[in-house]
Amino acid sequence: MTRSIIENPAPLQSNYVPSEFLYRDEERETLHTFMSSGSSGVQTLFVHGPRGTGKTHHLLSQLEDCPGSAVSCYVPCHRFDTQYKALKQLYRAVTQEEPADGHHTAALQRTIENRTRATEVMVVLDELEFILHNDGDDLLYFLSRLDTDLSLVLVSTTIDDLGDHLEERTFSSLQPETLTFEQYTAEQAYTILAERARAALEPQSIHRQALTHISSTVQNLLFDLHWLRTAAEAAGGVVTENLVVETRERAYRTYVTELLDPLSEHHDLLHQAVTELWMEREERLLTGDIYDQYQDLCTVYETEMLSHRRISDFLTHLEYLELVDADYHYGGDQGKTREIRPPENLFSGQEM
DNA sequence: CATCCACCGGAAATGTTGGGAC
DNA sequence: GTCCCAACATTTCCGGTGGATG
Description:
alpha/beta, five-stranded parallel beta sheet, DNA-binding
């Protein structure tokens, strides 16, 4: 093995915080204003936009150097996907104590309510759709009625209009402002990647065309960073465009692995089932076929299989993470079903 | 017009776990 | 320790859906 061209791996990680941010001045300004204005009562900011546009990234970086609130709590809802689990995270942040299971939701709510009265609290619910999917907006309704100075940030990739997903009473008492993160342009993606490459790699170790290829193919920065890192790790001396093309599938796999990490092995198997079936057929996949393939994989890996109903929910999780595209058919020659594809923009469909 | 298809998704049922009251 | 309760993950059940088929 030849020596690595990576001098400093950190800038190729998704959680890397650069000394200077590019292109998101307005969005950062909005976030900063919202997070540092200790207004009284509950104020809500709804942040949405495609995956890999920096929503979480900018939020977390500002949460760190914005210690304005007495209590601040970041909840990634794909890990904490019920009201109860999210409340436990909040309880931990408020009391500094480890919450135990077995309490009643109402008891957790009461403690949180009492301990936060007239305090400044910051709560971020990332990947909000996961919690809405399980428990509806009960948690949001509870938060909206807290008698405290709460700054609530709601983040979602797949929801564009929050009003469509909340009860009216919740929506109207939250009165959310909206902040949209637009997709990066290919040029912007190029500049950001070039900056990361400069900070991470040996000088002169990547061809301009290699970066152009990545940034013009996919504008999801999270994916692009996986791609760049994978190519750099595979490079003998210089990252060429050819090498980038060759490493795309491997990069896609590490990207998927990162996204699925907080979820279960069944999500993994299900994703694998979709990928395998697509390689085989290259045409629309129906839920039933995917379930059959999933069952086969369970047999191969000697894993106990879950029910159709459960897997249907897990498929929705993959949709939320944009690891599959789905068209819903209500009627038509196949009756009521979903037509599933791998994400067109990320998945090129070479050897797997 | 009845029935089938192939699934969606709400709701009830099941078994497990842990806290709290006695 | 025993009993009760709530939350959770998951299964089981079932009422839609709307074109195709007979």
